[in-house]
Amino acid sequence: MTTRQRTLQKSAAAAIIALTAAGSAIGMPAPAQAAAPRVASTWSSLMYRSLTHDAQLTALRTSLAGQQKAVRQWTAEVTVATRAATVAQTRLTAATTAEKNARLRHAAARKALTAARLTLRTAGARKPHSRSAVTRASAAVTAATKAVATRKQQYQRYATALTTARVDASAATTRVSRANTEVATYTTATARTRQAIAALPAAATLATQAGTLSRTVVDQFRPAFQLADTTQVYGVTVNRTIAFAFKRMVDDARADGVQISGGGFRTKDRQIELRTINGCPDVWTAPSSSCRVPTAIPGRSLHELGLAIDISSGGRTISRSTKAYKWLTLHAKDYGFVNLPSEAWHWSITGG
């Protein structure tokens, strides 16, 4: 495994966020800005997804593992909560019965007190007057009054216990309900994440799809290109469409011990100037191959669209014998770049 591959596998969701933030930091979007031709935005999006594929896959797998763990935890919670709810319901049933019995005993004590008072009034009014009968009736009223107070305290205690049992039973039911809801939620999330993993195209597939659009990107940019479509990547001016891919290529090459830079966008006037400097027989009609240094006819160079880069390494234009060229031949296609066979240093999205 190369350093580049290890770098791609370092992080999950945080990696995706960091990659996006990196694009914003250098003034480029990921993917390309909406002002660009739609096909350019599609190319940029495909390459972004390709180059962040491993991080996305890691993030999805990390999410899946977390979701599966949550399913197990909440399933266990359902068991515990159900058991607790059963205990709470049993206690509620017992508390309901105890409260009812205490209420009935309190009512009976009050009824007995009422009867004792009536007996006392009757004994006091009876002729001839019986002191002993009044004394007995008075004692009965006293005893009945104490019984009422005792039964009232007992009833209040059982009523409080019933309230507590109701609260506990309700909380236990809520706990079970929440646990079941969480199980359902994480089970659904797990299924969706599995689907997302299964549906995630391979990085190479995404890069290949972008490659099939490359020539159309060039064709649509020709009449619509503006300087505002460019941005800087480590001092190299390139089209925003390829900025993220180029930055990742430079970063990954550096991680593998290869330094690359180069010259990207240049104006049509500069292209004309180079045609003259490079000794082209005719600025406007002579083929590129007729120049001392191959130089495209003005209006045809992908440099004028910021979609080509003349790669240098260590401040020098690369050749086929350089470490940078050998690295590029192995990896550049992963970033959407193709070499122009006649120029080892020239890499673009079409190879032209």
From TrEMBL:
Keywords for the protein's UniProt record, in alphabetical order: Signal
UniProt keyword Signal present: yes
Xref: CDD domains: Peptidase_M15
Pfam families listed in its UniProt record: VanY
D-alanyl-D-alanine carboxypeptidase-like core domain mapped to chain residues: 238-338
Signal peptide coordinates: 1-34
PANTHER family for the chain: D-ALANYL-D-ALANINE CARBOXYPEPTIDASE (PTHR34385), PEPTIDOGLYCAN L-ALANYL-D-GLUTAMATE ENDOPEPTIDASE CWLK (PTHR34385:SF1)
Protein name per UniProt: M15 family metallopeptidase
Taxonomic lineage: Bacteria, Bacillati, Actinomycetota, Actinomycetes, Micromonosporales
